[in-house]
Amino acid sequence: MLIASKTDTGLVRSNNQDSYAAGEFSKNSAWAVVCDGMGGTSGGNIASAMAVKVISETILNSIHSGNYSGSIKNVLESAIYNANIAVFDKARENSDLSGMGTTVVALIINNGMAYIAHAGDSRAYLINGDNITQITRDHSIVQSMIENGQITSEEARFHPSKNVITRALGIGDVVDTEFTEVKLNSNDKLLLCTDGLTNYLQSGEIINIISSSIFSDIPSTLISAANKAGGGDNITAVILSIEG
C-alpha cells in the first residue's frame, strides 16, 4: 500500500480548517480520514482536528491488523458517531464554538474492498488507469438541485449556494452518514479530498495530474493546480494506491 498526503491553506484563507490522517495496517490494508471544518475562525479548525483524532483512534483501536473479520461498516459508523458526540459536546461547553462542525470522509481498505463513510461534500474518488469515478455523493444544496433537475452539473459549479452542505458532523447530537463499498483491483488508487480541491479542478484535470505524476508528488501537484486555479479555500488531498 502506498499513501501520500498533503494539506494547504490556499491563497485566500488565513488559517487551515482542514484536517486529515492516514495509515497502513498491513500490506494492502489501510485507513484514512479527511475533514473540512466550519464555524468561524477557530471553531472549524477545532471541529475538524477533534473529528480526525477521535475517528483515527476509534479505527486503530478497533482494527489491529488487515485480517479484521468484523463489520467494517460498524467500525466506521462508530468512529463517526464518537467524533460527532465529541464535537457537539465541545460546542455546547463553549459558546464561542457554538455551531461548529465539519465534513467527514473516512475510508478503510481491507481484503480487496474499500469501505467509505461520509457526511458533507468532502469526496472520495476511485482511479483505475485513466478512469476516475466519484464514489461519494455530495450532501449539499446544489447536489440536491442537480438530482431534482433544477440545475445542471455545470451550473452547479458557479451557483451561489455551492458551498452550503446539508449534512455535517458535530452540529447535532446525531449525524446522518452515507456508507459505500467498492471492490478494488490491483493498481487502483483512491483519492480523498476537500472541496478546496474539487471546486477548482474538474475530474478530467484531477486524473490527468494523477496519471502524469510520480505517486509521492500527486498531493502537492494537485494542490498547486488548485491554487493556480484560484486557491480560494483550504485544500487537502490524500491518495492511496493498491500495489499489484
Task: Tell me what the structure shows.
This protein is of the alpha+beta class. It has a single domain (2-241), classed as Phosphatase 2c, domain 1. Helices cover 33% and strands 29% of the residues. The protein is built from 7 helices and 11 strands. It has helices at residues 40-62, 72-93, 141-147, 153-156, 195-198, 203-212, 218-228, and strands at residues 2-8, 18-26, 29-38, 101-102, 104-110, 113-119, 123-128, 131-134, 178-183, 189-193, 235-241. The strands form 2 sheets. Strands 2, 3, 4, 5, 6 and 9 form a 6-stranded antiparallel sheet that branches. Strands 1-11-10-7-8 form a 5-stranded antiparallel sheet. A hairpin with a 2-residue loop joins strand 2 and strand 3. The longest helix is centred in the first third of the chain and has 23 residues, at 40-62. The protein starts with a strand and ends with a strand.
